[in-house]
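Contributing new records

If you add data, match the layout below exactly. Sequence lines come first and carry their own label; structure lines follow with theirs. Keep one chain per record. Anything else will be rejected by the validation script.
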Amino acid sequence: MKSKVLLLSVLFLCFQSSFSQKIENRLAELKIVLPKVQPPIASYVNAVRTGNLIFLSGKGPTGADGKFITGKVGVDMTLEEGKAAARNTGLNLLAALKAEIGDLDKVKRIVKVLGMVNCPTDFTQQPQVINGFSDLMVEVFGDKGKHARSAVGVGSLPANMAVEIEMIVEVE
């Protein structure tokens, strides 16, 4: 009997370890390296957990130097550059999420996203810009990455960031 329990325990651990790095493997397949988590720039935290929900503070896109990618989409940058900035912001949010929960395999669902685009008043392609973020979440998490979303245009963002995105994530 003890040998059966031991065998089942070993099988369970092997099964569990084969899935414990699923998202990390997916990131590697996509050639994605998460950036260093940027500390908050004021009196707030990157994430707050309540129950099985993680509320992530708004993040913006950063370059290799750690400085914000700035400008108004539709004026200082193209729609495609804005979309790339939104994707970059997604990487920053994933890094903050991983720092909070330790393992991205704990993600049950990306629940809700608010994407803000720094743009002029006549710019109307905010959803296409934030698609850069949304597409990344689906690439990484599959169906668990599909989320409810708002995409809005704003006249300015802190430090003149091109986009700012916040999200709510359900975890196991």
